[in-house]
Design brief:
This protein is of the alpha/beta class. The chain has two domains: about 140 residues, 3-Layer(aba) Sandwich (Rossmann fold); about 150 residues, Dihydrodipicolinate Reductase, domain 2 (2-Layer Sandwich). Helices cover about 35% and strands about 30% of the residues. Strands 8-9-10-7-11-12-13-14 form an eight-stranded mixed beta sheet, with helices on one face. Strands 3-2-1-4-5-6 form a six-stranded parallel beta sheet, with helices on both faces. Helix 4 runs parallel beside helix 5 and helix 5 runs antiparallel to helix 9. The longest helix is centred in the middle third of the chain and has 17 residues. It is globular and about 60 Å long. It starts with a strand and ends with a helix. The structure holds NADP nicotinamide-adenine-dinucleotide phosphate.
Length: about 325
Amino acid sequence: MLRVGILGCGSIASKVADSLKRNRNVTIAGVASRERSKAKKFAALHCPDAKVFTGYEKLAASKDIDLVYIATPNTYHYEHAIMCIKEYKNILVEKPFAMSKAEADSIFFEAKNRGVFVAEAMWTSYMPLHKKALEWIAKGRIGAVKYVSANLGYDIANVPRLNSQALGGGSYYDLGVYTTNFALSFMGDDIRVARVFARQISSGIDKDTTYSMESEDGSILGNFYVTMCADTDKDGVVIGERGKIKFTNINNYRKITLLSQDDTLLEEVEAKEDYLHGYVYEFESCANAISKGLIQAPEMPWARTVRIAALGDAIRSMM
Ligand SMILES: NC(=O)c1ccc[n+]([C@@H]2O[C@H](COP(=O)([O-])OP(=O)(O)OC[C@H]3O[C@@H](n4cnc5c(N)ncnc54)[C@H](OP(=O)(O)O)[C@@H]3O)[C@@H](O)[C@H]2O)c1
């Protein structure tokens, strides 16, 4: 049983704790907040058996915790990751893993030196339907990939964290990392940013960003759109020379559909009840990897996280 400690009792941490309630491989053994009353309230609501820690340092140092789940705002991930690694604590870090490639490199450098497990909580990569789509492509069901597209938007412009530069706000940091991970998953690792068009609000936060990517050999084009101002359909598509895969909700796969070149339905897989428990997969992957003595999760190897961070640097420099 993997004993997880939650670092930061915010919104996503509560959803994760609820998802893990009946899990047999993973348990929430501790929760840490900057405020004792907040941690106590969080534990009472979501994980009554968890130990309550006041201050993140105490959680990082606890012998009762196998993995710390870092669920603080984006700009704090680096500081909290390094603190845990220095305590030889395995970590699962919320997306975006870091604010830049330099931060990501530094975290992995420290983790490698100490043999500590680190993974990015890019929850989509761990989902069964993501793996199924990769399997269809590997089996040649759509032939060579030619075009990839996805949009991801929520009407969340009123969320304070997203409007704060100090907390790493903006639509690209919050949502673009998902579309870039989608691009890397289905276009391959050798891609570059071709064009960026971002609309900024006064604080320098991008309210929506659209960008194009191209494979280094020029054979695949990708188009992506993220926004914090509207609920989009969140659909994605991967088009190959002999067929296509349509994704219903690229941020929590509801359904994937395999079509032939002339749009004949070949196969369709629905998430069904998985749709409600998507956070479980990333934790089960951590439990499995740590039990095998691995320091990376196969679904989100360090190289992938570094690539997402590097492409994010490029996109922000072109905004
Ligand atoms: N995977 C997903 O589906 C998903 C969804 C939403 C968000 N996220 C990611 O999860 C992270 C947290 O997002 P969230 O929506 O849960 O944010 P949130 O509700 O604002 O919670 C963040 C928590 O971080 C702690 N914190 C530490 N320093 C802080 C500071 N200076 N200001 C505010 N909070 C601070 C607080 O916990 P204490 O007060 O208890 O110390 C706070 O409750 C972000 O990186 C975000 O991108 C992931």
